[in-house]
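Case study.
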Amino acid sequence: MSLDTVSLNLFIAGMVFLLSAAVLPLLFLRNGKRMLRYSSLISAFISCLLVVCASLPVVVYNLKIRFVIYTITYFFSITCMIDRLSAFFIILIAVVSLSVIIYSFSYIEHMIENIKKNMIVCLICFFIVSMIMVVISLNMFAFLFFWEIMSITSFFLVMSEYEKAETKKAGLFYFIMTQLSTLFLIFGFMAIANISGSYNFENLDGVSSIAVNFIFVSLFIGFGIKAGIVPFHKWLPYAHPASPSNVSALMSGVMIKVAVYGIVRYVVDIAQPPLWGGIFILIMGTISALLGVIYALKEHDIKRLLAYHSIENIGIILLGVGLFVIFTNYNLTALATLSILGALFHTINHAIFKSLLFMAAGSVVQATGTRNIEEMGGLVKRMPFTSSLFLVGAVSISALPPFNGFVSELMIFLGFFQSGALLSPILEILMFTCLSLFALTSSLAAACFVKAFGITFLAMPRSDHSKNAVEVKMPMLIGPAIPAVLCVVLGVFSSRIFTFLGFDLPIPDLLVISSIAIISAIAVIIIVKISGRTKYPVRIDETWGCGILSQNPKMEYTASGFSEPIMDIFKPVYRTHTHIEKEYSDKHNTLFQKGFAEIRLFEIFEEYLYMPIARFVMKISADLAKIQNVIEPDSYILYTFVTFLLLLIIGGWFI
Amino acid sequence: MINFPYEGILSALFVLVLVTAAFILTRRNILSLFTNYAMQSLFIAIIALILFLKENSVTLLVLSILTFATRVLIIPYVIKKIQKLMRIRRDVSFHYLTPISSLIVSIVLIISIYYSFYKFAANLSLAGVSYLGSTLGISLTFIGMLVIFSRKKAITKIVGYLVMENGVLLFSLFFSELPLIVEILIILDLIMLILIAAILAFGIDSTLEEFHQKINPLQKWVKEKF
Amino acid sequence: MNDSTFVFYIIFNLFFAVIISPFFMSLIKKVKAYCQGRKGPQLFQTYYNLMKLMKKEVVYSSTSSNIMRITPYINIVVILLSSICVPLVFIPQSSGSGFGNIILFLYLLALAKFFMALSGLDAGSTFGSMGSSREMTISAVFEPVIIIVFAALAFVMNTADIYRMFTNSVNSSMPFLNPIKFLNSISLFIILIVETSRCPVDNPETHLELTMIHEAMLLENTGKNLALMELSHAIKQTLLMALLINLIIPYGLITTLTFTGVILGAFSFFVKASIVSVIVGVLESSIAKSRLFRLPILFMMVFFFSFLTILFEVFLK
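After joint prediction, the assembly is written out as follows.
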């Protein structure tokens, strides 16, 4: 049996297991027994393992497997192809799903109703199936079919806790945005089909430029809405906090990456965008990265903070893709390979450490019962394992060596640095500006995670919520541990992995560096132990408080206090309005009676982009509703008559 | 001296000239304004000297010495003497632009002016450094204008005008033939000195609002009389 | 052959950096003392301080966690790793491990800063948290400047590898006469001042809560831990001085390994770094520490300066 068929069989076996895992809870919807969900989850776990084993040979040996599942007509068939890019994304989806599934073993149990628990398991499995099928679809119909299934299942998952008003608003917003993205995708795909004549993803190089530009913009907007690129990002900070943590991990870790898959597939395979397209992607990436991290700095809801950081990292991935497009337009293939590999590596890194962070955050939220980090603190003593996991995630996302985030950002930095003398001057000036903004983003992310980790876990508990927190159960620790281990492994072995896959990149060998680090650490510890021999043992005492005898939690820094200097520096971006109303008891305004103070952030996108469009649409639908509001059936038949007549005339005239 | 890196030294001097302009744009200490203006004129005099070494034209040498004498020695000396009579030491108010945004605006200004004049460069056959020098002269003039409208105290506005003049000098150094332009510049300098003396009479240590307040009684008297 | 010279280089560079760094700290203190009209501590005082601290009792706060206990070790190991990135005396052939990557150097320093900031927050005292908050703000706003300066260096010398940049400097004649390099050296000097928390960014002498940034984060460390943190701060300063010196005045740097070359190189680096320390000391004594919220304007000025350097390089290409 050749490697192709082995991979294919493993893959199909994996899909079957996953589908059965999805269907099983549906059959026994009201059954409350845990074994039902456990068996379903175990089946999903096995299927993810099988799928990973199926995709690894494809990535390593650069195979191409093509198969058809079902043919509806000649044009619409569910054709699938697993090539290197798809297999890479399948590994990404499967690995993250593995950890989320293990995490879900005990996370779901905190929901109250049995129907909800079973439905969540079923929907998660369908969600994973649809994402894997999107990534391997070759036919546009199949792509859109599975894309819609992915959107709908994720919508229901977001609405899991539908009793709260916050969730309802978040779910509705998310649903509208995802349907908008499908709309733009349909535009783009219809245009591609029109030009190339078939409904498979064919290469469009060398075709007339106006249509290809339109396809590029429309597909970019469609995928951009799903990925969370500024200015289409507004649904992300609502949807991620409102959904349960394992769902947020899946959505932020994987679903956003499927949108990135769409963009990368277009840029690499279908049509290479012109130079202005690359510059456009570069600028959108820089804006998303910068605005994402600046808005993340002011957040005190731990899940919204992580959601804004997803926007930032998608911006970084787009930076890499934009660099790739610019370099291929100038025929600099080595630099182009470096950039696209940097973008793809950052994709998988982000999937891993973001899901790790969301799962650890979910554990914290479940243990303390609040999402506000200003009420947490001191959790490092009460939840030691969760805090170490969150620390690994925080260090990875701040792009610090030797973890994986550092390597991917390094590759994009090297792309910027080496582009120096090879492009036109004004393009180089743009690259240097984007480079400095990218560096600003990266350092602000580190600052934000010092705040997030420090205020949440370190020092003393700031409220009773965190004082009474206990460590979570074992599955909720093993789940995030898998991505944590992968963060370290991917970072340390990164250059070995790339040489193994056949790419020769100028990145430092972190394995050697880490081994030297470990040796020097041992040497330092030995030297310190020898030279530091004192007759005094280690003493535990109070924190120095300038003479105050007992420190209480009110003396600690709050999260707002920590980020206040940065927020002051970036005041023009935030544009907060302070609104103060005071009522006095006397007419000389000296005796204060009661008052109202409000600090409102200037939500620039909501007020200037989304709300005007929403109001416009509401106005038009209100006007149209007046036409439709007549109850008689005669008017409906009149409308149908007019429409069909017009269609016939136009059809006959033009075809 | 054959391999003397003209381009490198000239571009380094350009950077120093623009940095002194940036200091004038953002610093709040009034004494530093004059020091920076003197340094800027010194750098321009050195640029003229290097151009003289490169092209061996006596006009440039004369210009360099003249610039050094008037703008580095005489004008700052005169203004410093005037400053001793003033009560204020700092100019903290910024109008329309904060220090950081004015620096960003200057960078955008320099880049856009460089690229806007590409068409003229081809017609006049200006080489790399000369083209850069002329566009930097224009940018320096615009930065001088930035100083005038974004700061409130009158003394800073005067220094901004002097910076504009420096920009015109820099532009003329690189653009084309010199003799007439040199004379015009010197005349401008003299007019400037007269202006300074005129404003001095009404109190140079104030913003324009206070200046108007001081002039107001005089205006009313003039209206009553005639 | 290549590997054994590289191993020798690592050990030599580490030891050299560790041994001479405390000297430069005391030299700067002595220069500042002379500027203030007093005699100041003796030149080997920092060594005595470090040895005294190693023998002192270690006190941990009851609210602090393992972060406080491991941060000094992480700090010293990371700074030792970054000292391998910057050759002080002898430039080895790059052995393919990519050690000389300038971004690796920058992010190793960022890793040390991250853990220092976390340890500041750990004890729950307001001093440490305030130091962490301000330190992360300043390093966040200053990072674009550092990257632009490094990008300018990489652009001028066509490489992003520190070893190759130094070799380039050694091979070119009179590098300090190259005007662009001279301007970049001014930016590198400013980076040295900001990263080692000296005036006008931070005052390393005071221990008042309103005026300290770096020292505030170290406040809770005692004994061996404080010795390790002080030593890593001193080594970081030496490395940044070496980056500045070896790019501009590379006399004494050797690329082939000879005994006399090493001795002469060590001596010349010692002299050059002492001169830079004296300049830093004099500069610190003549400028006051500026207010925290005036610092972004200062950084923007440095950014403007570095951006112009690279802009004109691009225009005149």
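Observations recorded in class. The two ends of chain A are 52 Å apart (CA to CA). The first helix of chain A runs from residue 3 to 27. We will return to this complex in the next lecture.
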